[in-house]
Amino acid sequence: MSFRWITFPALLLAGAAVLGGALLGFILLLAYPNLPSIEVLTDYQPKVPLRVYTADGALIGEFGEERRSVVRINNVPDLVKNAIISAEDERFYQHSGVDFLGVARAAYSNVVSGGKRQGASTITMQVARNFFLSSEKTLTRKIYEVLLAFRIEASLSKAQILELYINQIYLGQRAYGFAAAAQTYFGKQLQQLSPAEAAMLAGLPKAPSSYNPVVNPKRAKQRQMYVLRRMNELGYLNDAQLAQAQNEPLTVKQDANDYGIHAEYVAEMVRQMLYERYPDDVYTKGFRVYTTILKAEQEAAYLSLRKGVLDYDKRHGYRGPEGYAELIENTDEAYDDALSDHSDSDDLVAGLVLEANTRAVKVFRRGGEPVTISGEGLKFAARALDDKAAPNKRLRRGAIVRINKDEKGAWQILQLPEVESGFLSVNPQDGAIRALVGGFDFNRNKYNHVTQAWRQPGSGFKPFIYSAALEKGFTPATVVNDAPVVVDPFLTGGQVWEPKNYDGKYEGPMRLRTGLAKSKNMVSIRVLQAIGTQYAQDYVTRFGFDADKHPPYLTMALGAGSVTLWQMARGYSVFANGGYKVEPYIVGKIVDDRGTVLAQAQPSQAGDETLRVIDARNAFLMDSMMHDVVRYGTAARAMSLGRQDLAGKTGTTNDFVDAWFNGYQPTAVGIAWVGFDQPRKLGNSETGGVTSLPIWMGYMSQALKGVPESFMPVPDGIVTAKINEAGRQVQDGKPEFFMRETLPPEGSASEPGNRAAEDTKSQLF
Q1: Of 247, 272, 303, which one is at a domain's C-terminal end?
Q2: 459 among known catalytic residues
Q3: Are the C-beta atoms of residues 718 and 652 closer than 8 Å to each other?
Q4: pLDDT of residue 555
Q5: Within this chain, do residues 328 and 190 fall inside the same structural domain, yes or no?
């Protein structure tokens, strides 16, 4: 009797097992032939975004639906592999696709704990799911997942499977694969990750949203601690390494588009170029574009431009808060909501005023602790704390403001500037762009002021008129009268014109060299009238300017036409390189995802006589005169850089609307511009030397570090003679350079220098 009670359940269980096995075998028999081909794994071609780099390899931009960077398994550090295996599949190298011990352990844990369910998906099963299956949780999908795992293990090596996983898995923030995630979250390559960072990334596959360190830093930290403990338990980290990793503070990038270098305008230029060339593949084929930009110089240009614009803004006073928020709840969430429409502009942080009086202002920062600003930090906005301030200008609770740290690390209240700026640096020998900043903040204003903004060049255009005059027989010693003129409408294309010098002063007859150094408008007008406006209009096209943008009127002498910063850089390069027109370019080479070069720049080179647009002697004389602009003229403050090889020309337009400095050293041409997008007056005394020159100086102080001084060699046909105030040769005069054929005769001070000088005596009215 007892035997029957024992055997019957055993037979029942055995029968059930046989039936289950048969059923499972039948299911497998039906399912296995229907499994998808795994060719997609052996011929892995993921969507890889377009990436843009500096010439020295720094990533500056990424464009595509998915952030992904394919990495070969041999290039993945053991640290990263160990972190992944510890977090996801500790028996990866032992099982054949399905970890039956892991399944049993998970099942037991689920039964015993009765709480949160544990899974037992291996890395191989996750590869199967990511490449071939949906995320729905059904028995059918699970069966297919298991079968695919077996097939994958039978077809690929463990190294191949792990490589697929490392490159394909989604890790949040649009990042696919660990290489992309390392850049997205930490701005690093895989080889640069610390154990703490590797553990943070390895914890993401389980739940990319829940453990995202940007969105959920607390949960991400908990997950990271778990992964580190597992690495220790499995012998991948010793106790000392564990303790160090657990205590390591992590700096997580809050903005995935922050690449550690500000070259957003450059990256966007490249994106547009590549889209025109490869419209169907630009965002998926993994193109890598190496620009000509140099990382250190780009950052120097960016920081200098930002400082120059903020300094200008400080000179013109506080305009008041950006807006006001109605604060009903006193919670961080409510404060964050109030700032939601006010994104930070790099270090110019949006803040919400919580308390304000004349002594101190308490400001809440997004996601941070409130800061209290007092003393010097309130100086700029002091008027807005006065009880007499207009309601829409007053600093009070709920006001939206901008704060940043000063040079001493103390918080101060500033504001977003309304004025805009642009900066461009180019190598005059081959046209390679070394730095380009298209505006104060790309995220606020994507309009590229270097390539898109057509502005009046002002006095910065005078060197091209003077170069034309040298071609017509003028010399640096030619005497021209700096005296007021009244110009007939026929000669201006408009109405009667009574131009003035920017400082309102007139100094009478002076040499051409002095007229340029002091940027005398009357001298330039008389020179242009002497050589002819039609001739000048045609001549400036040699430098790459558009004739139709510079009508043949006397206003051309003061730069009343239209140019871009790009054109000005190309034009000044002609003076810097001895007379050659080289075309600026910004893309060095384009390679595909396998490193095959698809396109390589073939830049023009100074020294190629087919590119010569002005005589070498003309370029030398202009270079010599523009050195004096820096040594004692309108750009004299640049001498504080401690170099003698700097040359250039300030540019200030009528009514102080545009401010420029166009300057160079033989290895670098730099163009700096400041103005409003809707042209209006910058302010009295906001000249190119005051407003734009400091931006140029800030860049050059970094770009020329360690660069020895160099000067243009004296070309054949240049002679030196001593001259007097009238431009005649004398025994005890001041030395001057001349082209041999324009060497002035000997004579007294009362005699004119040459025929060109005689021509300038003709009346303009």
Answers
A1: 247
A2: yes
A3: no
A4: 92
A5: no
Q: What's the domain range around 385? A: 319-414
We report the CATH number of the domain holding residue 687 as 3.40.710.10
Residue 477 lies in a domain: no
Residue 232 has what pLDDT? 96
- pLDDT score for 114: 47
pLDDT value at position 136? 60
Helix (H) or strand (E) run with residue 25 in it: helix 2-31
Supply the CATH number for residue 223's domain: 1.10.3810.10
Write down the H helix ranges in 187-255: 195-202, 217-233, 239-247
CA distance 707 to 138: 68
Closest CA to 492 of 680, 654, 688: 654
Q: What's the confidence (pLDDT) of residue 116?
A: 45
Tokens of 536: 């000048």
Per-residue model confidence (pLDDT) at position 488: 77
Q: Which residues pair with 323 in a beta bridge?
A: 400
Residues 424 and 409 in one domain: no
| pLDDT beneath 70: ranges in the chain | 1-37, 40, 102-120, 133-141, 491-494, 748-765
pLDDT at residue number 4: 55
Q: State the DSSP H helix or E strand holding residue 616, giving kind and residue range, or none if neither.
A: helix 616-631
> How high does pLDDT run on average in the chain?
89
Spatial CA neighbour of 437 closest among 274, 582, 268 = 268
Q: pLDDT digit string (tens) for 323-374?
A: 999 988 888 888 988 998 999 999 999 999 999 999 999 999 987 789 999 9
Question: Is 89 in the same domain as 238?
Answer: yes
Q: Which sign does the torsion angle of CA 712, 714, 717, 719 carry?
A: positive
Q: Is residue 533 part of a domain?
A: no
What lies within 8 Å, CB to CB, of 337 at 6+ separation is: none
Handedness of CA 487, 490, 495, 501 (dihedral sign): negative
Asked, for residue 275, whether it belongs to a domain, the answer is: no
Task: Please check whether residues 84 and 206 belong to one and the same domain.
Answer: yes
Q: Which of 62, 69, 86, 88 is catalytic?
A: 88
Of 69, 86, 459, 573, which residue is the catalytic one?
459
